[in-house]
């Protein structure tokens, strides 16, 4: 054992010694170690960092420390001294995700002529060689594909003796005569290209990952020494978790709600309980803050509260899903093995399948016969079918797909119904159900369907898409499945939320047989605010669904009680007319369980995220006369890009009886349950950390309250990459 440890130690010492032997002759070397990580090791050359946060993020590098980038704003730049001749460049890189657009590991430019060369990667992981001439850029594909979550040594030689590109010590077979090399490199960019491609403020040509051991050479590349280094270091596993300092001062970022480590997420899908763990998948773009380059992200949990984020389960590849792995469903087949059905965004929208390599569900294999549904059925004009839900009835499997139809010049939401004997061969039957927007206001297209049997009834839930200024909304009907069609008990759907904010729930049975759901809660802030924030959207707390008298009742999952800090505060008080009682002041993670006796009050409810000076606050209350629930956010924030508005909706509440409120506050997200039946969700983004007070108030008469308040500790939400 001692001998093995000694050999390992000697091996690592030898690897690092390459830096002071054959590789020390590099003209400039940035290791990102030392007191100033951006300063070259032996010279005073300092890299210029560009980053929306104006901060250096360091993490474990291939040796020592490396620079962590964010995928949309981070890059490095330096000018090359006039008396310095740069003939080659090399560095170590690890990618968390492929870019939304072609991005560069590094790019060198002749500042006099504008001619540039770059070594980059496209959105499918193919290495490309970029050539630029001022504002004109093109990319030469190499046919060489690299992997995410692994260390890559990228080297470019520009001299006559070493002209070429090496990936992990392997020279690529490309015709370098097709590339116009810069005569004298005067500027270098690291982590992006000279080509500008912006989406809002986001740079789409930047990489998302780690940069380390960057070198510029004034002689031919020492290929043998590089290969020796690569033989040892390329085996290391990069740590691509987001450094804690990125969001350490962001008091609006939730701490016990599920969300990815950074950047963009959208709908959840495929919530299941399998072999003792819960799994949920999500639309994920780790490269920036936009609905592009969509992968299937993956989380797992032992308890629906504490989660681990894994590497994406599925990513786009050239062909039938090259434009995104869009939403779908996960079910257990007849053998109890999970299967993914997903929307394949390719030249046509279709439906595809994937199967797990093992019981961890971390690695999946796409079905060789994909797409199993290549497009819309014959006779239907729309091509944008999307989002699946699969279930079994008797001996037959069924799948519904979100869609829209046009009949008698009326556009309406619809669900396409397919059947299969084996989950692989699907036959189109007809539409399961179609809306009647003139009567039921159900919109022109339906997404993210759920068709869940609860007791002897089916709940059909859809999300109508935004149309003519009317936002998306989750609606549901309750009814029966008769002759392979859905028959609603009432033609009018009901809203999943009283105030519209939560969308697209994923539903499954928990380990105790309760039906639980997790859904997306969008931010709804401006693009500039999201750019500065560095993350977009999150997921709801797990909710328990029960069906009573044709209505879905929602309540917080009991597992959430494990997050309560041991001591709580009790209130048993009268709140006088035009007065309020402070319930909480402190960190922005807490829970309130309150019983309110309204008496003759005209308005009663909560003031949340209130600043002591009254400059910021949000009011959430019930208006008795109007019979409306109101979210008043006109004074919620002084920050740019935050909507300041009133949201309200009709809500019949019996105020002759005590009203139960169950309130969860977690940074910017607020979830409120009323009488363990109804729910509303909102987001609050104050500019001041001191905007953290919670009060209960009354207008028109006094109210009596009994309340218990807990501080909530953060959930454990880690990444394993």
Structure description:
The chain has 4 helices and 53 strands. The two termini are 29 Å apart. It is mainly beta. The strands form 10 sheets. Strands 1, 3, 4, 6, 11, 12, 13 and 17 form an 8-stranded antiparallel beta sheet that branches. 47% of the residues are buried. The longest helix is centred in the N-terminal third of the chain and has 16 residues, at 2-17. Strand 39 (543-548) and strand 40 form a beta hairpin. Among the domains are: 17-244, Jelly Rolls, CATH 2.60.120; 395-491, no CATH class; 561-719, Exo-inulinase, domain 1 (Jelly Rolls).
Structural class call reads mainly beta
Question: What percentage of amino acids are in beta strands?
Answer: over 45%
Outline the biggest β-sheet: 8 strands, antiparallel
- Low-pLDDT stretches: 1-21
Number of strands: 53
CATH architecture of the domain at 17-244: Sandwich
Number of contiguous helices: 4
- The assembly state of the depicted protein chains is single chain
CATH class of the domain at 17-244: Mainly Beta
**Overall outline:** globular
Q: What is the straight-line distance between the termini?
A: 29 Å
Rg over alpha carbons: 28 Å
Helix content class: under 10%
Per CATH, what is the topology of the domain at 17-244?
A: Jelly Rolls
Mean pLDDT across all amino acids: 94
Concise summary:
This protein is mainly β and 721 residues long.
Summarize the topology.
Layout: H1 2-17, E1 28-30, E2 48-50, E3 58-60, E4 65-68, E5 75-79, E6 88-97, E7 103-109, E8 115-121, E9 126-133, E10 136-145, E11 151-157, E12 164-167, E13 170-171, E14 187-190, E15 198-199, E16 202-203, E17 208-217, H2 223-233, E18 263-274, E19 277-285, E20 295-301, E21 307-314, E22 325-332, E23 338-345, E24 349-356, E25 364-366, E26 386-393, E27 396-407, E28 410-420, E29 427-434, H3 437-440, E30 446-454, E31 457-464, E32 473-482, E33 485-488, E34 494-495, E35 503-509, E36 515-521, H4 527-533, E37 535-536, E38 538-539, E39 543-548, E40 551-556, E41 564-575, E42 579-585, E43 589-597, E44 603-610, E45 618-623, E46 628-632, E47 646-650, E48 659-666, E49 669-674, E50 678-683, E51 693-699, E52 703-712, E53 717-719
